[in-house]
Structures are given as structure tokens and as C-alpha cells.
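so i finally got all the pieces together for this one. its six components total, 884 residues if u count the protein bits. some of the lines might not be protein, just check the labels. i wanna see the whole assembly predicted at once instead of chain by chain like last time, that was a mess tbh
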Amino acid sequence: MATLKPEARTVVPLTSGRSATRARILKAAREIFFRDGFADTNLDEVASRAELGKGTLYRHFESKAELYVAVLAAGGACFADEMQGEVDDTISALDRLRSIGRFYRRYWTEHPEYFIIFSAVNNQEFIGQLPPRLLAEVREIWEQPLRLLERVIADGLRKGELRDCDPWVMANVIWRSGNSAVAALVTPRRARVIDCSAEALYEATLDVLLWGLAAPPRARS
Amino acid sequence: MATLKPEARTVVPLTSGRSATRARILKAAREIFFRDGFADTNLDEVASRAELGKGTLYRHFESKAELYVAVLAAGGACFADEMQGEVDDTISALDRLRSIGRFYRRYWTEHPEYFIIFSAVNNQEFIGQLPPRLLAEVREIWEQPLRLLERVIADGLRKGELRDCDPWVMANVIWRSGNSAVAALVTPRRARVIDCSAEALYEATLDVLLWGLAAPPRARS
Amino acid sequence: MATLKPEARTVVPLTSGRSATRARILKAAREIFFRDGFADTNLDEVASRAELGKGTLYRHFESKAELYVAVLAAGGACFADEMQGEVDDTISALDRLRSIGRFYRRYWTEHPEYFIIFSAVNNQEFIGQLPPRLLAEVREIWEQPLRLLERVIADGLRKGELRDCDPWVMANVIWRSGNSAVAALVTPRRARVIDCSAEALYEATLDVLLWGLAAPPRARS
Amino acid sequence: MATLKPEARTVVPLTSGRSATRARILKAAREIFFRDGFADTNLDEVASRAELGKGTLYRHFESKAELYVAVLAAGGACFADEMQGEVDDTISALDRLRSIGRFYRRYWTEHPEYFIIFSAVNNQEFIGQLPPRLLAEVREIWEQPLRLLERVIADGLRKGELRDCDPWVMANVIWRSGNSAVAALVTPRRARVIDCSAEALYEATLDVLLWGLAAPPRARS
DNA sequence: TATGAATGAGGATTCATTCAT
DNA sequence: TATGAATGAATCCTCATTCAT
């Protein structure tokens, strides 16, 4: 409101300027996409939640799909970074997988928006409409965590901790089964088709997958 | 106009009259919903594919959502019936689960439309828009196969074939993980976010789940 | 308002039914396109002038451009028919050209809308945006009068009434010069860039063209 | 800010400062207006082609229309100057008209942008939107060449070289017919409604007009 | 019952113009 | 003076639903 002194200006950038606007749009978009899904999200509402004019959205993102993917990319980048940090190379592959499973649960429970948004893409809700360029971008973002899983599995195989399998295929099995369990965690109970404790479901999924992966004879608790 | 006596209903020719029209609508709707998803399905196209006037749709179904659920119900009824017929009580629980897994794969591969349509609901694509009555209907339809799984698991536990678990929770684990693998089977490769052989993925999922469930010591091939 | 007797219904079609709606849209569109030009025409206004919902326009015409061309086609068909009727084969080619010139003036003065609309296309105002199919349609419509001119000129050449020329090229010369003079007639004086009596301009154009075409020695008034 | 003394203006470097910026805007605007027409021209693109900020446009021109007219004015001033230089008072009026016709062809072929832009105004594409002040400006610019034509014609009449006519009206006839032929020259063939050799059309137009103007008996080649 | 024309709210996107820096 | 981010009115088009016939 009041005129700032020149020096004060360098403090402002956090709440104004191009990147701040972009961040506000992403935040608002994430919230609305999460609540309403891609098809039912109204960009007018995104704009007004971001306290910006509608046109401003288009100065930062070329289209609704582009905005969606940008939200997804932001979430994916975060996720991949944190997941990487979670992996402890000093423990067994099975324990690493278990700790990834715990991280997975914690992360998505704390950021359900990203999961739902990612999930929509993963479930081809609107994949058909996505221009190839954006599809490629989404792929790149989400391939990283899977490659990390693949590496852990390959390591476990080398050390004889795991039953024989194709690491890439098994990474996909874990990823998809894990997602299906997380989906229960982040979906409000009244919106779920089948009623079942999401916590128990998640634990059981993790347990079955680890048992199913482990090489006999067992040395686990 | 007047309520018909039950016997009178069976007299109505199967290829004309109210029920035949309904069937044509359901068929057309199933095809288009499958191809385009709920949001992008245009009822004009459904009507013209059914070779019916658009108004006719509304004489048989109250709304687009109602039509969607009716398609889903038809698919679910079919599925539950066939799945029931597949279960052979003379074999072990693990083998029964494996044979259900095979059936699952075969059924959805032959009827991908139903899977996609079911999947959309399952993934809360538009659950928010579904009136509670329709949601309840969907629930009832899809609970049957899960209850069947639950019974097989409970039986396996009784006979000591399986590791200790909550049958209902484990039925949900299998159901969700299985769905996540089927999703890969019925999604065209170019539309999948992550590239992985769907057949290998399905087999690996089935294998891991069964290993994970089986009680040690193992007696399986 | 009051219920009509069944017999009376057959009288109604002129003001209701699909073709009547189409006609109302064409009329409204012609008026607004005439007044505002293609780019500045608002289809909402067309709809409300036609006393129809906006969506109705799209049940009859696929797009704004399609509607524009339909208006043009209606005008062009009328024009070609009447022009054909105007040609009297018993008189000399020069006199036939003169009478076509008179017809031209009369017709466009009575239907300035069509001229303006045609003119916009002719002056490539939005030709670039026109899908090839529509461009071809426009071409076909407007080629007819030119072919008629070409025939009259060729006939005059055969009879030695006209100076040597390429009939198709000369038809184009007359058509374009004629149009440029008609443009003055149908443009309100205040909107014209250069102030000049439109009537005198038209007469002088006709006179110069005919003199310029006639073979010497002259036998004209 | 303050009014500069006339001498001071010539001191401003030609490649920087206010007038150079203005020139760059005009050049960019001319190119884009030419390619896209008034309605479809995007000022963002003009600014970026001029390698200037968008706001800068508004420091030099009050509005899009104002910019359009400025482009037009620049072209018109050029044209009038060169046309004036082309007229050779030592030859006959008919020959002077013919040489103007040649100049006309050459000039517009070399500067199609100006012609298209001028043409758009001439064809009232957006005359309705033009504030009266700008319309007056356009009029003044384009009246000069017509007055020059008028003088040549009046001279020809005085010397008995031309058939009797109103010089101002006839100047308008030549101007409009000439424009209609130039239009063919500067319009890419695929964009023309009617297909006809533009060169032949131009020559034929010139020929017919001169024959039509010349007083009999003829003494022309 | 079947029809299909009509509806109009709704939504994505564009762009000339403004204004704080 | 130059900038370019922000604006928001404007506009084309879609489509689920209604209703007169």
C-alpha cells in the first residue's frame, strides 16, 4: 500500500512478481483440481481462489491441461526428491522397501491433493486429451520413483534377499498395488465404493507384497 | 400404462418394445462411455449409435449418471454371476484364488468396457456427482465379488492354507491390487503413463499375492 | 396462442418447423453480418434477433463461418437466378451487357446486405479463416454470374461487336470494376473514404467499360 | 515533454529515441496487419516483432485503430509523393494516365502491405469502428492521389483528348476500378474467390479504361 | 411411447488496454 | 520513457435436459 523504500523491494518478491503469481495459481489449481477433478474444475474458480484475473492464468499456463500437468509436475518433483532421501542403503532391500512403503503412506496422506491429481492421470481419466508433449512430461516425472524401486529390487536380487523376478515388472507391481492402497487412504470413506478400513488395507497390502517378494527361507519377524 | 401382470411381461417380444429399447441404449452407452469416459461422453452420440431419438434416452433413464450406473450394474451382475460359477470348492483355497485370478484376467480382457466404466467409479472420477442412491446401488453390485473372495479366504484360513489375516481386508487387498493389474491389461499401451508389459505385470501381481498369502511351509509349485 | 384445429396445422409450417427456424436464423444473421461484418458479429445477438436460443444456431449451422457462407449462398443463388432471367439473347452483346449493368445496380441496391457480405469474402477479409470446403462452396456460387458474363462477351466477339479480348479475363474486369462501383452505391456516404456521387460513379463506370469494350467504328448512341 | 525547436528535432539520432521506436512499431504493425488483417492482428505479436514491450505501443499510439491509421498514413504519404513525381506534364493526358497506371501497378506490387491495409479501410471492413477523427485523417491522405488524377483528366478534357466527363467522378472510376485490379495482383491466388490471371486482368482493366476514356477518332497505338 | 428441435447455462480461451515499477 | 504483468469483458461453442407434437 505505502510506497516502499528501494531497499525494501528486495524483500517483496516472495509475495509478488511473476514466480509468486505462478505459485498462487498452482496452489489454487491444486486445491480445485483435487476437489473437483479435471473435467469439473472451473478455471474461473481457480482464478478467483488465486485472487487473480482469469486472463492471468493464461499468461502463465497455455491451457487447462498444461496447468494440470504443471500441478502434477510440482507434486512429482517433490515426491521424487523426498523418496530419494528416504532410501537408506545400509539396510536390507526388504527393509528398504518397507521404509519406502511407510514413506509412501506418510507422504500421500500429507499431500492427498497430489495423489488424487496423479491418480486421475494414472487412471487415464483424461490421458486421451493430453497432447503428446504433456503426456511425455508426465511420464518423465513419474518414472523416477519407479526407477528407484527397480534399483532397490535389483539390489535385493543380487544379494539373494528376494525371489527371482524382473525388477522393472516388480517395481510396477509394487507401484500399482501400492497406489491402489493409497487410494483408499486418501479417499473419504463415504466416497469409497467398498467399505473397508483404509489403514488395515494399507498395512495388509504392504505385508502381503513383502512376504510375496521375500526369498524363502525367511529370516523376517 | 397400467401395471402388467408378471406373466404378461414375458410375452413382450425380446427384440422390440420397452426392454429391447433399453438394451440398445445400454449397449450404445457402454461403448461410448468406454471410449470417451463419463465427462466426455455425448448423449447425442449415444442416441444416434442406438438409432434412437435423444428424448427416448430420457424415457428410460432419468439422467446421464443414472444411465452410467445402469451400464455398470449390467456389467456387475454379469461379472458376479460368472465369477460365482468359476469357483470350484473341491480344490485348495490358494488354487481357488489362482483360478479366480485367471477368470478375472479372462473376463476383463473380454469385456474391457465394463472394467473401464467400473474403474472410473472406483477411482472417484465422478463419485462426487453421484446421488447417494446411485452410489448405494453401485456399492451393492460390486460388493458381491468381494464377499465371494472373503469366503474363499476365510475357508483357506480355516484349513490352515493361508497366513493369518482379516478375510475382508485381504479380499479388498486382492481386489484392489488385482484391479490395478487389470487396468494395465485393458489400457492401450500408448495411453499408459508407465511402460511395462501388461501380461508380465498381471502374472507377477498374481504370483506375489499368492506367495504373500500362502502359509509357510510352502507346498506350491 | 389458442389451440389450432388439426386442419389448421398444415398452414403453420411457414412459421415453425426446422426449415422455418433455419430461415429465421439466416435472416437475422444476414442483418447482423451486414451491419457489423464477420469479425464483429456476435452470435448471441443473431440468436436473440432470431428470437431463438444460442444453441439453436448450432443445431442448424456448424460454426460462425458456416453460417456466413450459408447467408452468402442464399444471396448468391438468388442473384444468379435473377441475372440469368435478365439476359435477352435477341439484343446485341453490348446492350446485353448494359442491361446486365442495370440489373446489377438494381439488384444490389435492393439487397445491399448480400453485397456487403459477398464483398467481405471477395476482399479476403476472412478468406484465410475459411475452411477449404467453404471456400470452394463460395467459389462455386459466385462463378456462375461470371460465366454468364463470359458467354455474353464471347458472343459479342463472335459477332464482331467487341474489341478483341480474352472473354474470361474481360468478364473478370467487368465483374471487379462493377463491384467497385456497386460498393459505392451500397456504402452510406459518411462511411466512404472518398466523397463522390455514387450514382454518377456507377453510370460513368458502366459507360467507360462499354465504350472501352466496343469495337470501332462505333454505332452506339 | 516541452516542445522542441524544429532544429533540435533533426539532432535526434535516427536509430534510437522516440522516432526510431515509432518507426519500428510502424514497420512491425504493417507486416502483421498485412498478414492477418485488422481484426485478427494481435498487438502482442506486433510488440514482440518490434522487439518492444507491449506497453510501449501505447506510449506511441493511443489504440489499435490509431496504429492502423498511422500505418495507413505512412503508406499514403509515400504513395502520394511518388505518384506526384511520376507525372510528366509534357506528354498527352492519356499517356500520363497510362504511365500512372504502370506506376500504380509497380508501386502496389512492391508494397502489397500498404495496399491490403488501405483496401481494408476502403472496403469498410472496420470503418464503423473508426472514430470520426481517424476517418477524416484517412480521407485526407487518400484524397491527394485522386485529386492528381482529377487534374490530369481535366487537362485531357481541355485539350480534347478525352470524351466528355466529370473529372472528379472519372477520377473515382479509375481509382476504384484500378484498385479492384490491383487487389487481384496482391492477393495470393489460392485466396482469391475467382481464379483469373492477375497480370492479364490488370492489363485488360487498364486497356479498357483508356479506350473508354479516349475521344474518337483514336490516335492511340 | 418416441421424437428431435429448442434451450441456455456454462466454460475455455483471447486480447486490447491499464498501470505499477 | 519503457516495460510486461495483470486484467476482465467478450465470444464461440457444447451439451444435458425439456417438451410440444
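The radius of gyration of chain C is 21 Å.
Residues 17-18, 21, 52-56, 59 of chain C lie near DNA strand E (CB under 10 Å from a C1').
anyway lmk what u think
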